[in-house]
Amino acid sequence: MEDRFSQQLKKGVLEMLVLELICREATYGYELLSKLKEGSEGMFQLKEGTLYPILYRLEDDGLIESRWSQGEGRAAPKKIYSATEAGRRERLRRQLVWVEFTNAVNGFYEGGKKHDDRRAKENEEIYRCRGAAAESAAGCEGAGDE
Q1: Residue 138: helix, strand or coil by DSSP?
Q2: What is the pTM of this model?
Q3: Same domain flag for 3 and 61
Q4: Residues 68, 102: one domain?
Q5: What distance lies between CA 81 and its chain's CA centroid?
Q6: Closest alpha carbon to 94 in 41, 28, 36, 21
Q7: Residue 11's domain spans which residues?
């Protein structure tokens, strides 16, 4: 059984990760569950009852939209989720918040040392895109992708 600290950390980042995956490509619920599990080496192994409220919140906030896809043959229809323009901008904002957050936590554990030039250069693109996101996310579509 996971401890409360681990559960709270996961809860705090799940919405960000789900939005990230949907911004990368339109997808459906089961595929999101698989990608979260695979991409995190099993750390984010969710149940549908955890994922779907996140999807509903993102949709209610206008960050994603959904449509039904008709299955071929006997395949069941799937609800496909895709990012809106507002969702792509929010993705960039959340990436920046995450970088700032992890830098602050890591800096704390490193005794407050300044981060090296290499780390600063890695984050430079995300900071550049934050400014561009106010106008349009189009030029920063892949910023932060690995």
Answers
A1: helix
A2: 0.77
A3: yes
A4: no
A5: 13
A6: 21
A7: 1-83
Please check whether residues 76 and 96 belong to one and the same domain.
no
Encoded amino acid at 126, one letter: I
pLDDT mean over 66-78: 88
CA gap 130, 30 in Å, rounded: 31
- Locus of tokens 């599990």: 37
Q: Which two tokens stand for residue 112?
A: 């407050």
Digit-coded pLDDT (tens) for 15-26? 999 999 999 999
Q: What is the distance between the alpha carbons of residues 93 and 100, in angstroms, rounded to a whole number?
A: 11
The verdict on 46 and 105 lying in the same domain is no
Q: Is 74 helix (H, G, I), strand (E, B) or coil?
A: coil
pLDDT of 74 reads 85
Count Cβ atoms below 10 Å from residue 18 Cβ, excluding itself: 24
* Strands across the sheet containing 27-28: 27-28, 78-83, 64-69
Tens digit of pLDDT for each residue in 17-69? Answer: 999 999 999 999 999 999 999 999 999 999 999 999 999 999 999 999 999 99
Number of domains within the chain: 2
Concatenating the DSSP letter of every residue in 76-105 gives: PPEEEEEE-HHHHHHHHHHHHHHHHHHHHH
For residue 121, name the pLDDT band (cuts at 50, 70, 90): low
